[in-house]
Amino acid sequence: METKWILNKNFDRQQVAEISKALGIDENLATLLVQRGVTSFDEAKVFFRPSLSKLHDPFLMKDMDKAVDRVLRAIDENEKVLVYGDYDVDGTTAVALVYTYLKKFFKKKKIEFYIPDRYDEGYGISYKGIDYAADNGFKLVIALDCGIKANERIDYANERGVDFIICDHHRPGDTIPNAVAVLDAKRADCHYPYDELSGCGVGLKLVHAISIRRHLPLQDVYDLFDLIAVSIAADIVPITGENRVLAYFGLKLLNKKPRPGFEAILHTANIFRREEESEQEGADNVLSRQLTISDLVFLIGPRINAAGRIDKASDSVRLLLADNREHAEKLAISISELNDTRREFDNRITEEALSMIDSDAKLKTARSTVIFNENWHKGVIGIVASRLTDYYYRPTIVLTRANDLITGSARSIKNFDIYDAIDHCSDLLEHFGGHKYAAGLSLKPENLKKFQQRFESYIHNSLAEEDLIPELEVDLKINFCDITPKFERVLKQFAPFGPGNLAPVFWTDNVVDAGGTRPVGGHKHLKLVIKQIGDEKIGLKPFSGIAFQKGDLFDRIHTGEPFSVCYHIEYNYWQGRTSLQLNVKDIKFKEELE
Predict the structure, then answer these.
(1) DSSP code, position 270
(2) CA end-to-end span of the chain, whole Å?
Protein backbone atom coordinates (compact mmCIF):
# COMPACT_ATOMS: atom_id res chain seq x y z
CA MET A 1 0.00 0.00 0.00
CA GLU A 2 1.23 3.48 -0.90
CA THR A 3 2.25 5.64 2.06
CA LYS A 4 2.63 9.42 1.94
CA TRP A 5 5.61 10.88 3.76
CA ILE A 6 4.61 14.13 5.46
CA LEU A 7 7.53 16.20 6.73
CA ASN A 8 6.63 18.34 9.74
CA LYS A 9 7.37 21.97 8.86
CA ASN A 10 5.00 23.46 11.42
CA PHE A 11 7.46 25.02 13.86
CA ASP A 12 8.99 28.42 14.57
CA ARG A 13 12.64 28.57 13.52
CA GLN A 14 13.31 31.47 15.88
CA GLN A 15 12.07 29.39 18.82
CA VAL A 16 14.31 26.55 17.64
CA ALA A 17 17.36 28.83 17.62
CA GLU A 18 16.53 30.20 21.07
CA ILE A 19 16.03 26.84 22.78
CA SER A 20 19.07 25.42 21.02
CA LYS A 21 21.17 28.18 22.57
CA ALA A 22 19.48 28.00 25.99
CA LEU A 23 20.01 24.23 26.33
CA GLY A 24 23.29 23.89 24.45
CA ILE A 25 21.91 21.34 22.02
CA ASP A 26 21.95 21.18 18.24
CA GLU A 27 19.06 22.53 16.20
CA ASN A 28 17.81 19.09 15.25
CA LEU A 29 17.11 18.26 18.90
CA ALA A 30 15.75 21.77 19.49
CA THR A 31 13.37 21.30 16.56
CA LEU A 32 12.03 18.08 18.12
CA LEU A 33 11.35 19.97 21.35
CA VAL A 34 9.56 22.86 19.66
CA GLN A 35 7.42 20.40 17.70
CA ARG A 36 6.33 19.02 21.09
CA GLY A 37 5.42 22.46 22.41
CA VAL A 38 8.60 22.86 24.47
CA THR A 39 9.80 26.37 23.70
CA SER A 40 11.63 27.59 26.82
CA PHE A 41 14.24 26.46 29.31
CA ASP A 42 11.63 26.07 32.06
CA GLU A 43 9.37 23.98 29.83
CA ALA A 44 12.34 21.82 28.83
CA LYS A 45 13.15 21.27 32.51
CA VAL A 46 9.61 19.98 33.11
CA PHE A 47 9.76 17.82 29.98
CA PHE A 48 13.12 16.22 30.69
CA ARG A 49 12.72 16.02 34.47
CA PRO A 50 9.14 14.98 35.29
CA SER A 51 8.24 15.87 38.87
CA LEU A 52 5.63 14.55 41.28
CA SER A 53 4.92 18.18 42.13
CA LYS A 54 3.24 18.47 38.71
CA LEU A 55 0.46 16.05 39.70
CA HIS A 56 -2.83 17.91 40.09
CA ASP A 57 -4.87 18.18 43.26
CA PRO A 58 -7.38 15.31 42.99
CA PHE A 59 -10.05 17.44 44.65
CA LEU A 60 -10.16 19.58 41.50
CA MET A 61 -12.13 16.72 39.93
CA LYS A 62 -15.91 17.05 40.02
CA ASP A 63 -17.51 14.87 42.74
CA MET A 64 -14.19 13.89 44.32
CA ASP A 65 -15.24 15.23 47.71
CA LYS A 66 -18.43 13.13 47.54
CA ALA A 67 -16.48 10.04 46.51
CA VAL A 68 -13.99 10.39 49.37
CA ASP A 69 -16.76 11.03 51.91
CA ARG A 70 -18.56 7.86 50.82
CA VAL A 71 -15.43 5.67 50.92
CA LEU A 72 -14.45 6.97 54.35
CA ARG A 73 -17.98 6.32 55.61
CA ALA A 74 -17.68 2.73 54.39
CA ILE A 75 -14.37 2.39 56.23
CA ASP A 76 -15.63 3.96 59.45
CA GLU A 77 -18.87 1.92 59.48
CA ASN A 78 -17.15 -1.32 58.41
CA GLU A 79 -19.37 -1.73 55.35
CA LYS A 80 -18.69 -4.28 52.63
CA VAL A 81 -17.11 -2.72 49.51
CA LEU A 82 -16.86 -4.22 46.04
CA VAL A 83 -14.14 -2.97 43.67
CA TYR A 84 -15.56 -3.48 40.16
CA GLY A 85 -13.67 -3.09 36.90
CA ASP A 86 -13.69 -3.79 33.20
CA TYR A 87 -11.92 -6.90 31.86
CA ASP A 88 -9.18 -5.20 29.80
CA VAL A 89 -5.73 -4.06 30.98
CA ASP A 90 -6.95 -0.63 32.08
CA GLY A 91 -9.80 -2.13 34.07
CA THR A 92 -7.83 -4.93 35.71
CA THR A 93 -4.90 -2.67 36.67
CA ALA A 94 -7.40 -0.18 38.06
CA VAL A 95 -9.05 -2.85 40.20
CA ALA A 96 -5.67 -4.08 41.42
CA LEU A 97 -4.62 -0.53 42.29
CA VAL A 98 -7.73 0.49 44.23
CA TYR A 99 -8.09 -2.91 45.94
CA THR A 100 -4.41 -2.91 46.98
CA TYR A 101 -4.75 0.54 48.49
CA LEU A 102 -8.08 0.03 50.28
CA LYS A 103 -7.66 -3.51 51.64
CA LYS A 104 -5.56 -2.30 54.58
CA PHE A 105 -8.57 -0.35 55.88
CA PHE A 106 -10.97 -3.30 55.90
CA LYS A 107 -11.27 -6.56 57.79
CA LYS A 108 -11.00 -9.77 55.79
CA LYS A 109 -13.97 -10.45 53.48
CA LYS A 110 -15.21 -6.88 53.89
CA ILE A 111 -13.64 -5.91 50.57
CA GLU A 112 -13.66 -7.93 47.35
CA PHE A 113 -13.15 -7.34 43.66
CA TYR A 114 -15.41 -8.22 40.73
CA ILE A 115 -14.65 -8.45 37.01
CA PRO A 116 -17.66 -9.06 34.71
CA ASP A 117 -17.53 -12.00 32.35
CA ARG A 118 -16.93 -10.75 28.80
CA TYR A 119 -19.29 -13.34 27.32
CA ASP A 120 -22.00 -13.66 29.93
CA GLU A 121 -22.25 -10.02 31.09
CA GLY A 122 -20.59 -7.94 28.41
CA TYR A 123 -18.83 -4.62 28.82
CA GLY A 124 -19.19 -2.38 31.86
CA ILE A 125 -21.53 -2.46 34.81
CA SER A 126 -23.87 -5.45 34.52
CA TYR A 127 -27.18 -6.31 36.14
CA LYS A 128 -25.60 -9.57 37.25
CA GLY A 129 -22.81 -7.66 38.97
CA ILE A 130 -25.30 -5.40 40.73
CA ASP A 131 -27.30 -8.42 41.89
CA TYR A 132 -24.10 -10.04 43.18
CA ALA A 133 -23.35 -6.93 45.22
CA ALA A 134 -26.89 -6.64 46.61
CA ASP A 135 -27.27 -10.35 47.37
CA ASN A 136 -23.96 -10.48 49.22
CA GLY A 137 -24.40 -7.38 51.34
CA PHE A 138 -22.07 -4.95 49.55
CA LYS A 139 -23.29 -1.44 50.32
CA LEU A 140 -20.77 0.33 48.07
CA VAL A 141 -19.38 -0.51 44.63
CA ILE A 142 -16.43 1.40 43.18
CA ALA A 143 -16.68 0.99 39.40
CA LEU A 144 -13.44 1.54 37.46
CA ASP A 145 -12.90 2.15 33.74
CA CYS A 146 -16.64 1.85 33.09
CA GLY A 147 -20.03 3.20 34.10
CA ILE A 148 -20.20 6.67 32.58
CA LYS A 149 -23.17 5.68 30.39
CA ALA A 150 -24.71 3.05 32.70
CA ASN A 151 -27.70 5.23 33.65
CA GLU A 152 -30.34 2.48 33.75
CA ARG A 153 -28.06 0.10 35.62
CA ILE A 154 -27.25 2.70 38.25
CA ASP A 155 -30.97 3.36 38.70
CA TYR A 156 -31.41 -0.38 39.22
CA ALA A 157 -28.55 -0.42 41.76
CA ASN A 158 -30.21 2.42 43.65
CA GLU A 159 -33.43 0.40 43.79
CA ARG A 160 -31.48 -2.50 45.26
CA GLY A 161 -29.80 -0.31 47.88
CA VAL A 162 -26.29 -0.42 46.39
CA ASP A 163 -24.32 2.83 46.17
CA PHE A 164 -21.94 3.37 43.24
CA ILE A 165 -18.86 5.53 42.80
CA ILE A 166 -18.00 5.69 39.08
CA CYS A 167 -14.38 6.25 38.08
CA ASP A 168 -14.31 6.45 34.29
CA HIS A 169 -12.47 8.22 31.48
CA HIS A 170 -14.76 7.51 28.53
CA ARG A 171 -16.93 10.11 26.87
CA PRO A 172 -20.19 10.73 28.79
CA GLY A 173 -23.65 10.59 27.29
CA ASP A 174 -26.18 13.42 27.52
CA THR A 175 -27.08 12.52 31.12
CA ILE A 176 -24.71 11.62 33.94
CA PRO A 177 -25.70 8.47 35.88
CA ASN A 178 -27.39 9.04 39.26
CA ALA A 179 -24.52 7.58 41.30
CA VAL A 180 -23.18 8.82 44.64
CA ALA A 181 -20.20 10.27 42.74
CA VAL A 182 -19.15 10.24 39.10
CA LEU A 183 -15.45 10.91 38.54
CA ASP A 184 -14.71 11.59 34.88
CA ALA A 185 -12.64 14.55 33.71
CA LYS A 186 -14.48 14.43 30.37
CA ARG A 187 -17.70 15.56 32.07
CA ALA A 188 -18.75 18.93 30.65
CA ASP A 189 -19.15 20.27 34.20
CA CYS A 190 -15.75 18.98 35.39
CA HIS A 191 -12.89 21.48 35.35
CA TYR A 192 -10.06 19.15 36.26
CA PRO A 193 -6.94 20.45 34.43
CA TYR A 194 -6.20 17.21 32.55
CA ASP A 195 -8.83 15.03 30.86
CA GLU A 196 -6.69 12.26 29.33
CA LEU A 197 -6.20 10.03 32.38
CA SER A 198 -6.68 6.30 31.93
CA GLY A 199 -9.41 4.54 33.89
CA CYS A 200 -6.70 3.35 36.26
CA GLY A 201 -5.53 6.96 36.49
CA VAL A 202 -8.95 8.07 37.72
CA GLY A 203 -8.80 5.30 40.34
CA LEU A 204 -5.40 6.61 41.39
CA LYS A 205 -6.79 10.12 41.87
CA LEU A 206 -9.43 8.64 44.21
CA VAL A 207 -6.88 6.91 46.46
CA HIS A 208 -4.65 10.00 46.25
CA ALA A 209 -7.53 12.09 47.56
CA ILE A 210 -8.20 9.62 50.39
CA SER A 211 -4.54 9.86 51.43
CA ILE A 212 -4.71 13.65 51.47
CA ARG A 213 -7.94 13.69 53.48
CA ARG A 214 -6.60 11.19 56.04
CA HIS A 215 -3.10 12.75 56.13
CA LEU A 216 -1.54 9.42 55.13
CA PRO A 217 1.90 8.90 53.56
CA LEU A 218 1.77 9.55 49.81
CA GLN A 219 4.46 6.92 49.28
CA ASP A 220 1.68 4.31 49.48
CA VAL A 221 0.14 6.01 46.42
CA TYR A 222 3.46 6.34 44.60
CA ASP A 223 4.10 2.60 45.06
CA LEU A 224 1.12 1.97 42.77
CA PHE A 225 2.57 3.84 39.80
CA ASP A 226 3.75 0.65 38.10
CA LEU A 227 0.09 -0.31 37.61
CA ILE A 228 -0.65 3.16 36.24
CA ALA A 229 2.21 2.97 33.74
CA VAL A 230 0.91 -0.32 32.33
CA SER A 231 -2.63 1.06 32.02
CA ILE A 232 -1.42 4.21 30.25
CA ALA A 233 0.63 2.19 27.77
CA ALA A 234 -1.95 -0.51 27.07
CA ASP A 235 -4.94 1.84 26.79
CA ILE A 236 -2.98 4.09 24.40
CA VAL A 237 -3.86 7.34 26.15
CA PRO A 238 -1.68 10.41 25.48
CA ILE A 239 1.64 10.43 27.32
CA THR A 240 1.45 14.15 27.97
CA GLY A 241 0.93 16.29 31.07
CA GLU A 242 0.01 14.26 34.13
CA ASN A 243 0.21 10.96 32.23
CA ARG A 244 3.84 11.67 31.32
CA VAL A 245 4.69 12.09 35.01
CA LEU A 246 2.83 8.92 35.97
CA ALA A 247 4.35 6.87 33.12
CA TYR A 248 7.86 8.16 33.88
CA PHE A 249 7.79 7.21 37.55
CA GLY A 250 5.85 4.03 36.88
CA LEU A 251 8.55 2.85 34.47
CA LYS A 252 11.23 3.67 37.03
CA LEU A 253 9.40 1.51 39.57
CA LEU A 254 8.99 -1.36 37.10
CA ASN A 255 12.68 -1.24 36.22
CA LYS A 256 13.83 -0.98 39.81
CA LYS A 257 11.63 -3.55 41.52
CA PRO A 258 8.63 -4.99 39.66
CA ARG A 259 5.87 -6.41 41.85
CA PRO A 260 5.71 -10.25 41.85
CA GLY A 261 2.98 -10.31 39.21
CA PHE A 262 4.88 -8.16 36.74
CA GLU A 263 8.12 -9.99 37.55
CA ALA A 264 6.43 -13.29 36.71
CA ILE A 265 5.07 -11.91 33.43
CA LEU A 266 8.53 -10.68 32.49
CA HIS A 267 9.91 -14.15 33.24
CA THR A 268 7.47 -15.69 30.76
CA ALA A 269 8.59 -13.06 28.21
CA ASN A 270 12.29 -13.84 28.86
CA ILE A 271 13.16 -10.31 29.97
CA PHE A 272 15.40 -11.46 32.82
CA ARG A 273 19.04 -12.46 32.57
CA ARG A 274 20.03 -16.05 33.17
CA GLU A 275 20.16 -17.05 36.84
CA GLU A 276 23.94 -17.39 36.82
CA GLU A 277 24.31 -13.80 35.57
CA SER A 278 21.94 -12.54 38.27
CA GLU A 279 23.89 -14.39 40.97
CA GLN A 280 27.13 -12.79 39.82
CA GLU A 281 25.56 -9.37 40.37
CA GLY A 282 24.24 -10.35 43.80
CA ALA A 283 20.55 -10.02 42.91
CA ASP A 284 17.69 -12.49 42.78
CA ASN A 285 16.61 -11.30 39.35
CA VAL A 286 18.08 -8.73 37.03
CA LEU A 287 16.24 -7.26 34.06
CA SER A 288 18.14 -7.97 30.85
CA ARG A 289 17.43 -4.40 29.73
CA GLN A 290 15.48 -1.30 30.67
CA LEU A 291 11.76 -1.63 30.07
CA THR A 292 10.09 0.90 27.79
CA ILE A 293 6.50 1.84 27.06
CA SER A 294 6.67 -0.48 24.04
CA ASP A 295 7.42 -3.40 26.37
CA LEU A 296 4.33 -2.59 28.40
CA VAL A 297 2.26 -2.42 25.20
CA PHE A 298 3.59 -5.56 23.49
CA LEU A 299 4.86 -7.81 26.30
CA ILE A 300 2.91 -7.11 29.48
CA GLY A 301 -0.40 -5.76 28.13
CA PRO A 302 -1.32 -8.71 25.86
CA ARG A 303 -0.65 -11.22 28.62
CA ILE A 304 -2.85 -9.39 31.12
CA ASN A 305 -5.53 -9.02 28.46
CA ALA A 306 -5.38 -12.67 27.45
CA ALA A 307 -7.12 -13.92 30.58
CA GLY A 308 -10.21 -11.80 29.93
CA ARG A 309 -10.19 -12.50 26.20
CA ILE A 310 -10.02 -16.29 26.49
CA ASP A 311 -11.05 -17.14 30.07
CA LYS A 312 -11.51 -15.09 33.27
CA ALA A 313 -10.02 -11.60 33.67
CA SER A 314 -10.17 -12.09 37.43
CA ASP A 315 -7.04 -14.26 37.06
CA SER A 316 -5.17 -11.21 35.79
CA VAL A 317 -6.20 -9.26 38.88
CA ARG A 318 -5.08 -12.14 41.11
CA LEU A 319 -1.73 -12.10 39.32
CA LEU A 320 -1.34 -8.36 39.91
CA LEU A 321 -2.30 -8.79 43.58
CA ALA A 322 0.02 -11.76 44.18
CA ASP A 323 2.41 -11.09 47.05
CA ASN A 324 4.78 -14.02 46.60
CA ARG A 325 6.83 -15.17 43.64
CA GLU A 326 5.72 -18.82 43.57
CA HIS A 327 2.01 -17.97 43.39
CA ALA A 328 2.65 -15.27 40.80
CA GLU A 329 4.68 -17.58 38.57
CA LYS A 330 1.93 -20.22 38.50
CA LEU A 331 -0.64 -17.63 37.46
CA ALA A 332 1.73 -16.06 34.92
CA ILE A 333 2.43 -19.41 33.24
CA SER A 334 -1.30 -20.09 32.96
CA ILE A 335 -1.96 -16.64 31.53
CA SER A 336 0.97 -16.97 29.10
CA GLU A 337 -0.62 -20.16 27.77
CA LEU A 338 -3.90 -18.28 27.32
CA ASN A 339 -1.97 -15.63 25.41
CA ASP A 340 -0.65 -18.32 23.06
CA THR A 341 -4.23 -19.44 22.46
CA ARG A 342 -5.29 -15.85 21.91
CA ARG A 343 -2.56 -15.45 19.30
CA GLU A 344 -3.77 -18.55 17.45
CA PHE A 345 -7.36 -17.24 17.39
CA ASP A 346 -6.14 -13.81 16.32
CA ASN A 347 -4.09 -15.13 13.39
CA ARG A 348 -6.81 -17.48 12.14
CA ILE A 349 -9.62 -14.93 12.34
CA THR A 350 -7.51 -12.24 10.70
CA GLU A 351 -6.83 -14.57 7.77
CA GLU A 352 -10.53 -15.41 7.50
CA ALA A 353 -11.49 -11.72 7.61
CA LEU A 354 -8.97 -10.75 4.93
CA SER A 355 -10.24 -13.56 2.73
CA MET A 356 -13.84 -12.45 3.28
CA ILE A 357 -13.04 -8.90 2.16
CA ASP A 358 -10.87 -9.98 -0.75
CA SER A 359 -13.60 -12.21 -2.16
CA ASP A 360 -16.36 -9.59 -1.95
CA ALA A 361 -16.05 -6.86 -4.60
CA LYS A 362 -18.39 -4.52 -2.73
CA LEU A 363 -16.52 -4.91 0.56
CA LYS A 364 -13.17 -4.57 -1.16
CA THR A 365 -14.01 -1.18 -2.71
CA ALA A 366 -15.93 0.25 0.25
CA ARG A 367 -14.56 3.11 2.34
CA SER A 368 -15.28 1.25 5.55
CA THR A 369 -15.09 -2.34 6.71
CA VAL A 370 -18.01 -3.82 8.66
CA ILE A 371 -17.84 -7.61 8.73
CA PHE A 372 -19.65 -10.25 10.76
CA ASN A 373 -19.09 -13.92 11.52
CA GLU A 374 -21.06 -15.47 14.35
CA ASN A 375 -18.31 -18.04 15.02
CA TRP A 376 -15.49 -15.58 15.62
CA HIS A 377 -14.14 -15.43 19.16
CA LYS A 378 -15.37 -12.31 20.90
CA GLY A 379 -12.18 -11.94 22.88
CA VAL A 380 -9.96 -11.18 19.89
CA ILE A 381 -12.16 -9.20 17.49
CA GLY A 382 -10.70 -5.91 18.74
CA ILE A 383 -7.22 -7.08 17.80
CA VAL A 384 -8.50 -8.27 14.42
CA ALA A 385 -10.17 -4.89 13.83
CA SER A 386 -6.81 -3.20 14.45
CA ARG A 387 -5.04 -5.50 12.01
CA LEU A 388 -7.65 -4.93 9.30
CA THR A 389 -7.41 -1.17 9.83
CA ASP A 390 -3.65 -1.37 9.33
CA TYR A 391 -4.04 -3.55 6.22
CA TYR A 392 -6.79 -1.61 4.39
CA TYR A 393 -6.43 1.74 6.18
CA ARG A 394 -10.09 2.58 6.64
CA PRO A 395 -12.55 2.68 9.57
CA THR A 396 -13.25 -0.89 10.59
CA ILE A 397 -15.80 -2.78 12.67
CA VAL A 398 -15.52 -6.51 13.34
CA LEU A 399 -18.66 -8.20 14.67
CA THR A 400 -19.55 -11.57 16.15
CA ARG A 401 -22.46 -13.20 17.98
CA ALA A 402 -22.85 -12.86 21.76
CA ASN A 403 -25.97 -14.62 23.03
CA ASP A 404 -28.95 -12.89 21.38
CA LEU A 405 -26.98 -9.87 20.18
CA ILE A 406 -24.29 -9.06 17.67
CA THR A 407 -21.36 -7.36 19.34
CA GLY A 408 -18.18 -5.86 18.00
CA SER A 409 -15.14 -3.65 18.17
CA ALA A 410 -14.37 -0.60 16.05
CA ARG A 411 -11.03 0.95 15.10
CA SER A 412 -10.33 4.13 13.16
CA ILE A 413 -7.74 5.92 11.05
CA LYS A 414 -5.95 9.20 11.61
CA ASN A 415 -8.16 12.22 12.31
CA PHE A 416 -11.45 10.33 11.94
CA ASP A 417 -13.77 10.10 14.94
CA ILE A 418 -15.30 6.64 14.79
CA TYR A 419 -17.29 7.29 17.98
CA ASP A 420 -19.21 10.04 16.15
CA ALA A 421 -19.76 7.74 13.17
CA ILE A 422 -21.24 5.05 15.41
CA ASP A 423 -23.29 7.65 17.29
CA HIS A 424 -24.83 8.61 13.93
CA CYS A 425 -26.25 5.06 13.83
CA SER A 426 -27.15 4.89 17.53
CA ASP A 427 -30.88 4.29 16.97
CA LEU A 428 -29.93 0.90 15.50
CA LEU A 429 -27.78 -0.06 18.49
CA GLU A 430 -28.43 -1.52 21.91
CA HIS A 431 -25.23 -0.14 23.39
CA PHE A 432 -22.05 1.63 22.35
CA GLY A 433 -19.17 3.49 23.93
CA GLY A 434 -15.53 4.35 23.53
CA HIS A 435 -13.14 6.94 22.13
CA LYS A 436 -12.32 8.78 18.93
CA TYR A 437 -10.19 5.92 17.60
CA ALA A 438 -11.66 2.84 19.31
CA ALA A 439 -15.15 1.84 20.36
CA GLY A 440 -17.40 -1.09 21.19
CA LEU A 441 -21.02 -1.68 20.19
CA SER A 442 -23.87 -4.19 20.24
CA LEU A 443 -27.02 -4.50 18.14
CA LYS A 444 -29.87 -6.86 17.34
CA PRO A 445 -29.29 -9.20 14.37
CA GLU A 446 -32.18 -7.70 12.42
CA ASN A 447 -30.45 -4.30 12.45
CA LEU A 448 -27.11 -5.49 11.07
CA LYS A 449 -27.75 -4.80 7.38
CA LYS A 450 -29.20 -1.33 8.06
CA PHE A 451 -26.24 -0.53 10.29
CA GLN A 452 -23.72 -1.61 7.64
CA GLN A 453 -25.41 0.53 5.01
CA ARG A 454 -25.76 3.62 7.18
CA PHE A 455 -22.25 3.37 8.57
CA GLU A 456 -20.76 3.04 5.08
CA SER A 457 -22.87 5.97 3.85
CA TYR A 458 -21.61 8.14 6.73
CA ILE A 459 -17.99 7.18 6.01
CA HIS A 460 -18.44 7.76 2.27
CA ASN A 461 -19.75 11.27 2.91
CA SER A 462 -17.09 12.04 5.52
CA LEU A 463 -13.88 10.74 3.94
CA ALA A 464 -12.41 11.47 0.52
CA GLU A 465 -10.24 9.00 -1.38
CA GLU A 466 -7.08 10.83 -0.36
CA ASP A 467 -8.05 10.43 3.32
CA LEU A 468 -7.70 6.68 2.84
CA ILE A 469 -4.02 6.84 1.92
CA PRO A 470 -1.93 6.24 5.05
CA GLU A 471 0.50 8.95 6.04
CA LEU A 472 3.87 8.62 7.71
CA GLU A 473 4.52 11.77 9.71
CA VAL A 474 8.21 12.63 9.68
CA ASP A 475 9.73 14.90 12.32
CA LEU A 476 13.07 15.71 10.70
CA LYS A 477 15.29 15.21 7.70
CA ILE A 478 18.78 14.41 8.98
CA ASN A 479 22.05 12.92 7.77
CA PHE A 480 23.53 9.85 9.41
CA CYS A 481 26.47 11.95 10.62
CA ASP A 482 23.99 13.94 12.78
CA ILE A 483 23.45 10.86 14.94
CA THR A 484 26.29 11.58 17.38
CA PRO A 485 26.73 10.16 20.91
CA LYS A 486 25.39 13.43 22.39
CA PHE A 487 22.41 13.34 20.03
CA GLU A 488 21.66 9.77 21.20
CA ARG A 489 21.98 10.70 24.92
CA VAL A 490 19.60 13.64 24.67
CA LEU A 491 17.14 11.75 22.45
CA LYS A 492 16.84 8.99 25.08
CA GLN A 493 15.57 11.60 27.53
CA PHE A 494 12.58 12.37 25.29
CA ALA A 495 11.09 9.08 26.54
CA PRO A 496 8.64 7.77 27.62
CA PHE A 497 7.22 7.79 24.10
CA GLY A 498 3.58 7.36 23.20
CA PRO A 499 0.59 9.31 21.85
CA GLY A 500 1.27 13.03 22.20
CA ASN A 501 5.01 12.33 22.37
CA LEU A 502 5.65 9.72 19.70
CA ALA A 503 9.15 8.42 19.08
CA PRO A 504 10.61 10.77 16.43
CA VAL A 505 10.63 9.64 12.82
CA PHE A 506 13.69 10.67 10.80
CA TRP A 507 14.15 10.87 7.02
CA THR A 508 17.52 10.29 5.38
CA ASP A 509 18.24 10.41 1.61
CA ASN A 510 20.98 8.87 -0.53
CA VAL A 511 21.23 5.63 1.42
CA VAL A 512 22.82 2.48 -0.03
CA ASP A 513 23.50 -1.08 1.04
CA ALA A 514 26.82 -1.20 2.89
CA GLY A 515 27.27 -4.87 2.06
CA GLY A 516 25.55 -6.71 4.90
CA THR A 517 21.85 -6.37 4.07
CA ARG A 518 20.00 -9.69 3.97
CA PRO A 519 16.43 -11.01 4.06
CA VAL A 520 15.21 -12.55 7.34
CA GLY A 521 12.02 -14.09 8.66
CA GLY A 522 11.39 -16.25 5.65
CA HIS A 523 12.29 -13.36 3.32
CA LYS A 524 9.45 -11.22 4.77
CA HIS A 525 11.75 -8.72 6.46
CA LEU A 526 15.13 -7.08 5.88
CA LYS A 527 18.11 -6.92 8.21
CA LEU A 528 19.86 -3.82 6.92
CA VAL A 529 23.44 -2.61 6.97
CA ILE A 530 23.32 0.77 5.26
CA LYS A 531 25.34 3.93 4.80
CA GLN A 532 24.70 7.39 3.38
CA ILE A 533 26.58 8.59 0.33
CA GLY A 534 27.28 12.19 -0.64
CA ASP A 535 29.84 14.86 0.12
CA GLU A 536 32.64 14.32 2.64
CA LYS A 537 30.84 15.91 5.60
CA ILE A 538 28.18 13.19 5.54
CA GLY A 539 30.69 10.42 6.12
CA LEU A 540 30.36 6.73 5.38
CA LYS A 541 29.64 5.24 8.82
CA PRO A 542 27.30 2.24 8.38
CA PHE A 543 24.19 1.71 10.51
CA SER A 544 22.34 -1.48 11.27
CA GLY A 545 18.59 -1.57 10.90
CA ILE A 546 15.50 -3.71 10.62
CA ALA A 547 12.73 -3.18 8.05
CA PHE A 548 9.65 -5.30 8.69
CA GLN A 549 7.54 -6.43 5.72
CA LYS A 550 10.13 -5.08 3.26
CA GLY A 551 11.75 -8.33 2.20
CA ASP A 552 10.49 -7.90 -1.38
CA LEU A 553 12.88 -4.94 -1.81
CA PHE A 554 16.05 -6.96 -1.18
CA ASP A 555 16.98 -7.57 -4.80
CA ARG A 556 16.72 -3.91 -5.74
CA ILE A 557 18.59 -2.70 -2.64
CA HIS A 558 21.28 -5.33 -3.18
CA THR A 559 22.14 -3.78 -6.58
CA GLY A 560 23.49 -0.70 -4.81
CA GLU A 561 20.73 1.62 -6.03
CA PRO A 562 20.31 4.64 -3.68
CA PHE A 563 17.07 5.04 -1.74
CA SER A 564 15.54 7.06 1.10
CA VAL A 565 14.53 5.73 4.51
CA CYS A 566 12.22 6.84 7.30
CA TYR A 567 13.06 5.36 10.67
CA HIS A 568 13.03 5.47 14.45
CA ILE A 569 16.29 5.37 16.37
CA GLU A 570 16.14 2.58 18.92
CA TYR A 571 18.37 0.10 20.70
CA ASN A 572 18.80 -3.60 20.11
CA TYR A 573 19.57 -5.84 23.08
CA TRP A 574 21.23 -9.15 22.36
CA GLN A 575 23.16 -11.43 24.72
CA GLY A 576 23.91 -8.62 27.15
CA ARG A 577 25.02 -6.17 24.48
CA THR A 578 23.28 -2.96 23.50
CA SER A 579 23.61 -1.44 20.05
CA LEU A 580 21.93 1.38 18.18
CA GLN A 581 19.51 0.21 15.51
CA LEU A 582 17.35 1.96 12.92
CA ASN A 583 13.77 0.71 12.93
CA VAL A 584 12.94 1.45 9.31
CA LYS A 585 9.27 2.34 8.82
CA ASP A 586 9.39 2.83 5.04
CA ILE A 587 11.71 2.80 2.05
CA LYS A 588 11.27 4.79 -1.16
CA PHE A 589 13.34 4.99 -4.33
CA LYS A 590 13.91 8.22 -6.24
CA GLU A 591 10.94 7.98 -8.62
CA GLU A 592 8.57 7.32 -5.69
CA LEU A 593 9.51 10.64 -4.07
CA GLU A 594 9.08 12.78 -7.18
Answers:
(1) T
(2) 17
